[in-house]
Amino acid sequence: MEHTVNETSERQKPQTKALWRVFWILLILTAFEFVVAFGLDADTFKYTKIGIFIIMTIVKAYYIVGTFMHLKDEVKTMIWTVILPAMFVVWLLVALVVEGGYIGFVRK
């Protein structure tokens, strides 16, 4: 039995334009991170650098997950099933780092 392609069916166009757009956005964000990492003084702008890196990491993760994992086209419930557990993991890591500083702390 031979399979034939229906004449009325359309082929889906490749999404190369969107992929190149995301590529350039990620490249610019990464270049900006390098400028911040090597351009700002580590002692003077310590918390500013940390804040910039956290924000840039979240933005880059949004583009990577949305584009390459095809999550931006999903329904909202699917997005929340991915984001909510990730938020709890981040909360756990922050809590462990903050509480980890109290090891060996002597109360009077």
Write a brief structural summary.
With 108 residues, the chain is mainly alpha-helical.
Secondary-structure blueprint of this entry?
Elements: H1 16-39, H2 46-68, H3 76-100
Helix pairs in contact: 1-2
Largest sheet: none
Report low-confidence residues grouped into runs of 5 or more: none
What is the strand content?
Answer: under 5%
Let me know the number of strands: 0
Structural class: mainly alpha
Q: Domains counted in the coordinates: how many? A: 1
Distance between the termini: 85 Å
CA-based shape: flat
How large is the radius of gyration? 22 Å
Average of per-residue pLDDT values: 81
Report the total helices: 3
- Secondary-structure element series: HHH
Helix content: 55-70%
Protein traits:
67% helix, mainly alpha, 3 helices, 108 residues, single chain
Structural account:
This protein has helices at 16-39, 46-68, 76-100. The radius of gyration is 22 Å and the shape is flat. By secondary structure, the protein is an all-alpha fold. The protein has one domain (16-100). Helix 1 packs antiparallel against helix 2. It contains three helices and no strands.
